[in-house]
Amino acid sequence: MTNLEVRPVPELCDLVPSLGPVVELHEARDVPLGGVRAMRVRRTLPQRALPMVGAWCFLDEFGPQHVDMRVLPHPHTGLQTVTWPVAGEILHRDSVGSEAVVRPGQLNLMTAGRGVSHSEFSLGAQPLLHAVQLWVALPDGVAQGAAGFEQVSDLPVWEAPRARATVFVGDLDGTWSRAHVHTPLLGAEVVLDAHADVEIPLVRGFEHTVLLLGGTAEVAGTPHTTSGLLYLGDGRDHVRVTSHDGARLLLLGGAPFAHDLVMWWNFVGRTHADIAQARADWESDGRADRFGVVAGHDGARIPAPELPNIRLQPRRRLPRTPKEPS
Fold first, then answer.
1. Helix ranges restricted to H, the chain
2. Does residue 272 lie within any of the structural domains?
3. Quick check: is 195 in a domain?
């Protein structure tokens, strides 16, 4: 997935001192991809008050919607893309030569490093699509390294009475995904049966957040019935989740990210100069030297928007008053 905004907002995400356990609902922003008639997504990361959760720095949810998704080749730097479908099939092609169809229960993980390009197309005529696209910021060294791609199909499942969680990134209570990430992270899809009441173990040093993908639930004593992101802070050993009628949740966590970083369009860097150079390289005749070529598109691609006429400045989290967790 790409950020197709014509005037993307520059953002610098930073390490923020711990606030301990909190309960904050951050509403989603509705964003059209490719114009008002195209697919719409609900964006919950980044936000002015919450630019990151661990190394998770971008989160779009799209669907459930019958739509043709046609995302032409576009570039990335300094991040990993994480594609997690709930319904539908998506064809991924990239400049390292990968071509893979990702289906529900499978994970696509692409590492941009210094530069990569890729495309994503839905399969079928106006299929029912429901998926999340996430970005993970890369630490120093890896962020300037080689691009790569992996698809993971044999994902482990953590189980509890009336609840199960497919762990697609990181570790949940000793249940490990073999997906290759570069900072301590957790990504899991949690499915609750009707009348579920479960305590999900967490890592105290991680900050955590929950996105509702379907149904209704109560998380940490707070009803969660919107498409927003429920941020739980850090310092928790577990979170209690209940559902009367059943629910599907996305649980994300991670150690606070140890590097400042600037995000603009589809690029993640450390400075304004990093972003400006990446854009210039994508728009140059020699773009393939850095970003490669995605086969099957006859040179078609998504051009980069114009940089804002200012130097990209930090965007910090807003001061917050911690709320007592339930």
1. 272-283, 287-291
2. no
3. yes
The alpha carbons of the chain give a radius of gyration, in whole angstroms, of 19
Question: Which candidate, 208, 211, 230, places its Cα nearest to that of 221?
Answer: 230
Domain count, the chain: 1
Q: Is 118 annotated as a binding residue?
A: yes
pTM for the model: 0.91
DSSP labels, 219-277: ETTEEE-SSSEEEEES--SEEEEEESS-EEEEEEEEPPPSS-EEEETTEEESSHHHHHH
3-state secondary structure of 280: helix
Domain with residue 166: its CATH number is: 2.60.120.10
Helix (H, G, I), strand (E, B) or coil at 290: helix
Print the domain residue range for 208: 19-254
Is residue 92 part of an annotated ligand binding site? Answer: no
Does the annotation place 224 within a ligand binding site?
no
Residue 175 lies in a domain: yes
Residue 225 lies in a domain: yes
- 5 annotated to bind ligand: no
- Asked if 140 and 182 touch (Cβ cutoff 8 Å), the reply is no
Query: 48-95 pLDDT, tens per residue?
Result: 889 999 999 999 999 999 999 999 999 999 999 999 999 999 999 999
- DSSP class of residue 143 equals G
